[in-house]
What we know:
alpha+beta; N-terminal domain of TfIIb; CATH 3.30.1390; 2 domains; 4-stranded antiparallel beta sheet; 3-stranded antiparallel beta sheet; 6 helices; 24% strand; disordered C terminus
Amino acid sequence: MEYTCDECYAMRQPHICICDNCGMKTMVSVVKSISAVSKCTNCGWGCASAGGYPPSCHEDDRLYALIVHKPEDKKKMVKLADLLSVRVLDLIKEFQDDIIERRYHVLECLTRYEQLKELDIKCEIDQAIVRNFKRIMGCEYVGRLDIKTGAIILPNHLNHEQ
Length: 162
């Protein structure tokens, strides 16, 4: 399935739909993390569902390119090798054309892109990410990936009630 920001439940809030109890289009649903809470403003009936509402970009299984330019500074090269989990000498060999390309799923690509920017290492993100997910770069629902564990770290306002 092609996922885009337009299919994202988190981004399209609140949802107004037909109430299963009274039949009126007065059911207001809000997605919090991966759960949805719904309450009818007409009859007061409500329900909650757990699971099944991750942002669309979390479900995307396509791979995207991250282009990394060779750092001039040796310290940055060491940091880059650590970030990419490769030996420094192997990384130096990879940089024959002064750039390398790595392919990742969207969350890992975004996370690594931001880490490289923090290290002031020149890099470019695959424009297909921006094309497929037009609002992803500043999205407050995306979260980031813990590279070491593979866990998705959601923004604080999605991890708990405020």
